[in-house]
Amino acid sequence: MQSIQFKRTQTAGKKPTPEQLSQGELAINLADHVLYTKDKNNAVVQISVSPEKHAELNTKVDQNKTSTDRVIASNKQEAANNLASVKAELNQTITAKDTATNKRIDATNTTVSNLTQTVTANKTDADTKINNLTGTVSANKTAIERTVAANKSDADSKHAALTKTVTDNNTAINNKVNTTNTNVSNLTKTVTANKTDADNKISSLTSTVAANKTAIEKVVSDNKKDADTKISNLTGTVNSNHTAINNKVDQNKSSTDAAITAANKRIDGIEGSANAAYIKKNTKTYHGAYLYSKTGNYLEDSTARDLNYFGAFRTNGQDGLMDLTLNVPHSSGKAHGRGFTFRYASGGSRVETYGFDAQGQKAFSYKMYHEGDKPTPAEIGAYTKGEIDKMFIKNVTMSVPSGSESRAYFKIATATIPQNGRMVMLRIFGGNGYNVNSYDQVDFLEIVIRSGNNNPKGVSIAAYRRNSLNVHQVFAVNTSGDNYDIYVNYGRYTDNVIVEYGKTSGVSLTVHDTPAMTNVKPSTGVTDGRVITMFNTENKAGTLMFDNNGQGTYDIVSLNNDSGTGKKYLRKFRSKAAETIWHETVQGNVYRLATGTTDSSEVLRITGRTMFTGKGVFDAGQNVLRLERPSNQSNYIEWQDRRNGANARQGWIGFGSAETNNFQWYSDQGKNSFQLEANGQCSITTGATKIVYTNGEYVAANSNAFRMIYGNYGAFWRNDSAKVYLLSTAENDKFGGWNTYRPFIYDLTSGNVQLGGDGNEDALTLERASRAARFSNDVYIKKGFLTFDAGRSGSRDYIRFNHWGDSNNARDNVLYLEDSKGRHFSTERNMATGGLKAYFLGDLEVAGQMRWGKNTGQSSFNIRAWGNDTRKQVLECADESGWHFYTQRAGGPGTTAIEFSVNGKINAPQLSISQDATIPKFNSGFGVGVANGLGGNSIVLGDSDTGFKQNGDGVLDTYANNVNVVRHTSGGITFNRRVVVANKNGLGYSDISDVTRDRAPFLVNMDSIKGSGAYFPIIAGYSNLGDVGYRQSFEFGWTGSGSTHGWRTGIIRMRGDNANGQQARWEFTMDGDFTAGRNGSFNDVYIRSDSRLKINKEELQDGALEKVNSLKVYTYDKVKSLSDDTVIKREVGIIAQDLEEVLPEAVGIQSTEDPEQPEAIKTISNSAVNALIIKAIQEMDAKYQAKIEALTKEIAELKATK
Hints:
- The chain is an alpha+beta fold.
- It has a 13-stranded antiparallel β-sheet, with no helix packed on it.
- A hairpin with an 8-residue loop joins strand 47 and strand 48.
- Helix 1 (about 50-120) packs parallel to helix 3 (about 190-270), helix 2 packs antiparallel against helix 3 and helix 7 (about 1105-1110) packs across helix 9.
- The protein starts with 6 loop residues before the first strand and ends with a helix.
């Protein structure tokens, strides 16, 4: 029989991935001696402990015990130290507080003694200081009590903290002991003993702490008693002083009262004080501080009963008011007054607001609700909870009469359910029958009906039941439109049930008290409901789904609490009838799977951490997995392919035959294998590809790492810890040592590479540090340089060729010849143009002419230096046809005259002249710092199309970016673009006009304006509608009144295109007035009416109604002005002259500023007219209110008489 082989590895620390294991499948790490499997959460878990880990845990247990003992001793000492510290600190605090208390008492006694003489000055001052002293004593007493309480609280807190520390230590010790018990079961007794010892020590420590706590509390109690005694003594002293002070005050009371009476007489003889130095009756007083007054008592002071004044009153049910009242009278007295009245003490917390009528009689009194006096449902017309419950719950009777039918259909409700998700809910409590202990008859059913989206039209019905033993049917019959009859099916003895119901908005629902019954289910318009059975303890049939349970949640918990040691049967299951029955059991630490009628045929057993299945044993010890190999048998694990109906072996691992001791891993598919041979050799046999591939490192610990044998030679890599070599063998010695060839050497220390040598000398060395390639002699290439070293053939410095390029600057191919001092010579080519340049640095000696262009064109240039008696020093540039230019110092060395001549014209895009130059005329436009792009007679400045240009006789234009923005002519300046004036010179509103003139960004100066009739425009806009006409101007200006007519008037004007045309004008005067000849349209108009802007206020006296009645209202045509009788519109209104006769304050004047019509125009204040009307309405209201009250009284009297 073949043994079971498990997945295994010899790599230490390696753990299988979830993809490599199935649930319950095992994998072994032979190096770590541990066993892995995959649980139901798809996590790979370790299910065994290696011997090494076991020993490590033993060591940790010993260490934990030592650490536990050390922690207990340390905690005990720390607790004792903390307790001593707390006690010392508490005693010190109490002593300090006692000293502070005594000092405060002494200071208080001194203060009381000093106050005795001071308080005799006047009674008010004495009472104030007595109150302050009493408050100070009370505060001292409170502070002392608070301090003692705080000391006790602090001691309790520290005791609690100490107790918590002990508790935490106890918890920590228990956790450590529990952890030790979990990891190593055979140390349970030792750890338990440690825990018992720790508990005893903690108990002893707790007793010590409790004793200390009792001692501390006694010290605190004694200190508190001592403090109370001192406070009592202090209180007695203060009371004695207080009695002496009162006696002294009583002695001075007569003289004080006499002085106050004399002062009151003087005050009554003086008129009132507006700044609240004192208050006098019927005099306005403005007071910035608090004003306190007592509550008027109706019962004790009859003069207090005056509701014509504002104040607080103890009314005690009189005048129709409750216990306390806050009264707010009208300015005229009690009539029209308002107020609040309250209950207090045992009377409750009722609050009412009241009001008086014009005769001072109470007109109303309304209750005010608040948190302590809430309204009842009846008071606000609301339903009670009991009334609401009756609206949605009712008793329904469903009875099946005696006969052959035991069940029937009942029309329990009728509903109109519009489409688009409207709903009805019914919950039915009850069942079929009423037998004792028949719990299936105590049931309830929940029905939900929801309409569709009208496409198609209809409803969905679901009924949720709790007990599958009860039969339920629910359906709805569509009688018409959105109308439905709702039916349920119940049996005999149902009788009374409770129906709870509800609906969404827009739905009508009627639940019938006695539903109509039918034995036959309707056949048309029926929508059946789905009956859904809820899973519970009474209804266990069906499939349990745990799809949405969290990962940290058990799907099934089966924890037996039986105290016996017998077997617990967990599950019994099979796939179909007459098939193998499986049994799942647990007994102690043994878990089993077995088959048979009973669990007699064991298939799998797990004991502790060891699993038994057939002949395979998974042990928690050193032999994690055992596959037993009997004599004359192979011993391997093989993999069989059953996919898509296949039945073929794919591979195996183990000992492939009965005789072999070679361990092999073989693939039937690839025909390749890995062998661990008995002689110690490891062999890999490849398949058809002959390739060994790895995506990781290939590591060899031998100095000769990788040998290649093919043909007659062998080649291999060698690492002797200093260098890496590529070596070869002698011919026909493929497994032999190396020969003298060294084609490749890599120095591990320097990083240099040697090529083509024998180990002593190489043909080429590649240096890592210098990035240089050095040949066998003194020539080397380094960073693009070809260098000949110094010393070669007697040289004192190196010389090198430097080849580079810079295409961004058209230096495409450059060669430098240089040494350590820099460049000697360079040559370069522009690849785009083919041009060549050569540079010589230092002196260039030429014996003759320097000629350019030889053999490159039809002509060549040459430069030569020469001289004679008259022209001693000449440098000349010429070609075959003659000279182009020369420069000379004719007098020779030592002279200053230099001459430069050109044999032709000079065309220069830029020309710089360092001294003065006289140029009579420019034949074209020119640019300053840039080429001229405007052309013609123009000058550009810094930009080729920005500058000045003459565009005709007397026309000078200014251009910006080739745009004509300004034109200067003899007739003025024309701006072709907008004018932007940047002004950052802000002004204050107090600055005079001369400052504005000097700092305004745009100024029109008209200092010489004279003549009162003239109008002077400052800025005007002009437009027309093309061929249509309507030429129109919009202007800002002022009138020219001049010094003889006072200030000028600012004007905004719109004017038509002829003398008699349309005109509109708005005027602004120096007084701040604004005048418009026509109407204004505003969203709203606010008139300044703040009380702070109005002084000397007096209430308008009666007679407003008479004044209003005296005014006549006219309809009239309104003309533009006194000089222009053009009608603006037809209006209705009053005449200013009429209003001026009855209310002159409401009429003003407006200056016309017209020398021909100097008469002022009268104006009306709408605010004043409104105020007059308001006053008239008030008078009318008072007048008719009095009449109404008189008539009301008369009617009442008539009714009483009748």
